Amino acid sequence: MQSTTIDGEKLSSAIKHADKVEASIKESLKTCKDLIAYAKQAQWRGDTRDAFLTYVEILYQYHADFAEASEKQTKALKQLKDNIGKFPENPYVKEVNSI
Q1: Rounded Cα–Cα distance for residues 1 and 14 (Å)
Q2: pTM
Q3: What is the chain's percent helix, strand, coil content, to nearest 5?
């Protein structure tokens, strides 16, 4: 069985990058939402408008899913950093190690 090593410095760097990615995704999500709102209220009509709205709404759905996943990833990284020292004391870990 191989051991897993987590480098604290690299974990901190990963958290910083995850925060930046999360912020960027949320900004893109807001931009998509703004584009949808603008296109719906604009005087623009026709197939081109409908195609544009469909495309941007698909992007919005993608970004919404990606934002949710990004939040979970960032939260997991932060929890890992906060709880890594407690891991060896976890009863499940002790049970597995005793096998």
Answers
A1: 26
A2: 0.76
A3: 85, 0, 15
What six digits make up the tokens of 77? 């990284």
Q: How far are the Cα atoms of 15, 37, 95 from residue 24, in angstroms, in the given order?
A: 14, 20, 41
pLDDT digits (tens, 9 = 90+) for 59-76: 999 999 999 999 999 999
Total number of domains in the chain:
1
Q: Dig out the tokens for 36 from the structure.
A: 């949808």
Alpha-carbon separation of residue 30 from 64, 73, 77 (angstroms): 10, 20, 24
Provide the residue type at 32 as one letter: C
- 37 within domain boundaries: yes
4 domain-assigned: no
Q: How far is CA 93 from CA 87, 89, 96, in A?
A: 7, 7, 5
20: in domain: yes
- Domain range for residue 68? 9-98
